[in-house]
Each structure stands twice: as C-alpha cells, then as structure tokens.
Amino acid sequence: MSTKIIAFFNNKGGVGKTSLVYHLAWMYQNLGLRVVAADLDPQANLTAAFLDEERLEQIWLENGQTTTVFGCVQPLLKGIGDIDNPHLEYVQETESSRQLSLSSELNSLALLVGDLALSGFEDELSAQWPNCLGGGGQERAFRVISAFWRILQKAAVNHNANVILMDLGPNLGAINRAALIAADYVVVPLAPDLFSLQGLRNLGPTLRTWRQEWQERLAKTSSLGKKGLGSDLQLPQGTMQPVGYVVLQHSVRLDRVVKAYERWIARIPTVYQEVVLNQPSANQVSIKNDPNCLALLKNYQSLMPMAQEAHKPMFYLKPADGAIGAHTKAVKNVYGDFEKLAYKIAEQTQVEIL
After folding, report:
1. Measured CA distances, 348 to 86, 113, 245, 334, 345 (Å)
2. What is the CATH number of the domain that holds 209?
3. Does residue 81 lie in a domain region?
C-alpha cells in the first residue's frame, strides 16, 4: 500500500507555497505523524529553509549530488540502471536549537533534498512522455516518467512515513507533470491578486489534461505483451485530486481585508469551482463559506523574517529568537492557524492523525 502524496502547486510563483509546505511539515510532525517533505522544485527553496548553508555546501558541493533527488535519477539519465535509493535528511527541534540527526528513529520529519541540477531531468522527461504510448523503449519511458513517484514511495518506506508533502516549482513543465502524476492530492496556494487567479485558470485544465493523458498511457501497458513492465515496476495512478486552496499573505487592517484585495478574494471561489473542479457555479459563494477554502492565512509580518533567521517555523519561535511582547501572542495564533489547516487537509486527504 502506497503512502499518500500531497502536492502543493500553483503555476504562479510568489504565493508562499514553500513556506506553507515547510510549516505544515513541522506541524504534522508535531501532531505525531512521520513526514517526508519532498523538494521537487529545481529552485530548492524548501531545502534551503530546512538546512543551513554549511550542510547545503556539504550536500551540493562535497557529496557530488549523491544525496539529492537528482542523484536518485542519475542512473536513469546515464542509462546505467534504475532510480537510486533516496537519501533523507532528518531534522529535529530541541529546546535550545534546531539539529540534524542521522537517525530516522530520533525524528519523525525527513527531507528529500532538492537540487538545482534537477532541471537537467526536464528534457528526458519530455522525450519519454510520448514513448509511453508505444514503440521501442516503452518500459524505459515508464520508468523515467514514474521515477518521482517511486523515489517518494521508497523514501516513505525507509522512513515509515504517514504522509509525503511535495513542493513544486511554479511552472507547467515536464518535471511538474511527472511530479503531479505522482500526487494523490493537490492543494493550491493562492495570493489574492490577478496573477494568482490567472495561474489558477491555467492550472485547472492542465491538471485534467495530464490526468487524462496518464490514464491513456497506463492503458497502453497491456501492449507490452505477456512480459508486461516487469514485476519490479509499479506505477502511480495519477489521481492528483484537488482538495482545496489556501489563500496566503493578504494584508489585514482592523481584521478586515484591505479593499485592494477584496475583489480578487471574492472571485476565487467561483474560479476554483469552475476552472479547477470543472463544475458550474450558479451562486456567488463567499470565501468564508466556500468548502473548497482550506484556510485564509494572514500576513504574519515580522514573524516570518524572524523565523527565517532562526531557521525554524514561526510557531516555534521563542523569546531567545526575538519573539517577545506582542510577538508571543502572534506565535500562538500562528500555531492555531496551522494546526487547523493541518487537520483540515488531513480530513480531506484521509490522512489519519494519531
């Protein structure tokens, strides 16, 4: 039985997607789950959020990419084998500081390390996509396209994970197509602006197209004859079911959304319903009453740079990190916001919180 994969994706950048994945990974760990946070964005921002510069230098420069997600697919690229066994970085929070651990038994939060070199896998994924439909090298094509899913499932088995959270880059390229085919569920982070809504309009039809095309390719596996794809090759179902959206970084004045953003927020429920879910939206639904809205998260202002400096999530900030005075209450509020969001996503994706 495979571990559920939840992708966080919008083809519009700058909506706080990586920060969302980072904080939810810590929150699920805090709620008792064993989590794999997977960085499949070639910009590797999630990896930079978890690891300090010294560790990044060791991984990217000294280890020769053997401990990154790109290292896992290199045997496929070189034509010398299948995916390599994934390396995981284990991160734990103590009272005094954030620490790295070499043991999965000591910590329930693991990172599948990203790599800027992952962009070099894009061309191969593009080339192998049509080959899944038949002709020579069909089995290799399926191995390449399913590589991310199989790497993630190996990582989940190694970590005994309850859930996998996947961070993706803001584009509709071949890397994200392969990554989303690996996903069971998709959460859409949004900002209340025109660009984010336009990204949403692109995202909905693209998800449906990729889902349909992958189902066509799965149907072609029968053309491989009695030998099939080989007993060692399992393939993702490519469900990539949208479970809702999260609106981030909206400005608030006296607990009311600034008027400049009100009209964009008002449009989100209808656009999501019609474009992503492909369902008619007869009535104007308020975002506060929209079942597809997983959360409206405030702009936490000075807490975010403070957390980035301390290399920890905002809700773990302490007086020693500068969270004093009014910040103390704000930290508690952030914890409550992300706890509610974590439970809501878990409910929608059937992930059981222990």
Report:
1. 28, 27, 12, 21, 5
2. 3.40.50.300
3. yes
